Amino acid sequence: MADNQEPAITEDFLSAALKTRLNATHVEVTDMSGGCGASFTSLIVSPDFVGKNSLKRHRLVNAALKEEIARIHAWSAKCQTPDEYAKEKAATGGNEGPPMDGTNAQGKVEGVTE
Amino acid sequence: MLTRSLFSRQLFAAASRPAIAPKAVSSAFRPVLFYQNRFLSDATRQAIDKAVASAPVVLFMKGTPETPQCGFSRASIQVLGLQGVDPNKFAAFNVLEDAELRQGIKEYSDWPTIPQLYIDKEFVGGCDIIVSMHQNGELAKLLEEKDVLVKGEEGAAEEQTEKKE
């Protein structure tokens, strides 16, 4: 589209935007749409999340990526403070990364267990 | 097990029961002018107010509890079932049925995605939040506080840890 002045939404773009706008120390963005750039899931680690409950953290992310999220089809995020990220990494021996939307057979709604 | 079949039949049946849910809301949406989709009109806001108040636990989703049309919506319904939410205290609204609801709920909640969960008229979050609260026990606590679980079904979540046959 000739009049589309907005940058393409890619994993890198979102990752960079999160680092800039949210002081994220660690970001993982995964394009779940097979390269279409329509559906993303993410893991965002930022000190900005300290002292905020889950909803507030997500609202922070939504506000930071307001325009981008409005342009894509699906968005999923896991928001952790640097502490939580470190703890989970230690506990799981390599963290689970972005939430992979999936419902496996054991009745768990997240594809957590490898 | 009995618990699962109760969930399957009653939770779904309740959500699609004729009385409260989509019908009452859809008719309120119809008169709203199409080109007002950038602003939340009074009529839309009131209709959503009513939807949010129609039951202690309300989920705006894509599709129905029986046939979710999206993985995130399906995951959310699954969690509510695992938690043992009382079907009589639950209502689901299918945003795919109504374009004005689909757009309006995003502005109403100031939340860009669907599904959206309301408990006791308060916005709780989307799928990610529902799932993480489910995993860390916060959701169970909240649902108990609000007294929306099926009585005598506290074992519902535990049952799921049994191996499936």
Give a description of the structure:
- The complex is a heterodimer of chains A (about 110) and B (about 160).
- With about 110 residues, chain A is of the alpha+beta class.
- Chain A contains four helices and three strands.
- Chain A has helices at about 10-20, 55-65, 65-70, 80-90, and strands spanning about 25-30, 40-45, 75-80.
- A three-stranded mixed beta sheet of chain A has the order 1-2-3.
- In chain A, a hairpin with a 7-residue loop joins β1 and β2 (about 40-45).
- Chain A is globular and about 40 Å long.
- With about 160 residues, chain B is an alpha+beta fold.
- Chain B has a domain at about 40-150: Glutaredoxin.
- Chain B has eight helices and four strands.
- Chain B has helices at about 1-15, 20-30, 40-55, 70-85, 100-110, 125-135, 140-145, 155-160; strands at about 55-60, 90-95, 115-120, 120-125.
- In chain B, β3 and β4 (about 120-125) form a beta hairpin.
- Classes of the chains: A alpha+beta (about 110), B alpha+beta (about 160).
Name the descriptors:
heterodimer; A: 114 residues; alpha+beta; three-stranded mixed beta sheet; 4 helices; disordered C terminus; B: 165 residues; Glutaredoxin; disordered N terminus; Glutaredoxin (chain B); metal ion binding (chain B); Thioredoxin-like_sf (chain B); metal-binding (chain B); disulfide oxidoreductase activity (chain B)
Short summary of the structure?
Chain A: Residues 86-114 are annotated as: Disordered. The complex is a heterodimer of chains A (114) and B (165). Chain A is of the alpha+beta class and 114 residues long.
**What overall geometry of chain A do the principal axes of the alpha carbons give?**
globular
Shape of chain B: globular
Distance between the termini of chain A: 42 Å
User: β content of chain B, as a range?
Assistant: 5-15%
* Distinct helical segment count of chain A: 4
How do the SSEs of chain A run, as a string of H and E?
HEEHHEH
GO cellular component, one term (chain B): iron-sulfur cluster assembly complex
Organism (chain B): Neurospora crassa (strain ATCC 24698 / 74-OR23-1A / CBS 708.71 / DSM 1257 / FGSC 987)
Pfam families (chain B): Glutaredoxin (PF00462)
Protein name (chain B): Monothiol glutaredoxin-5, mitochondrial
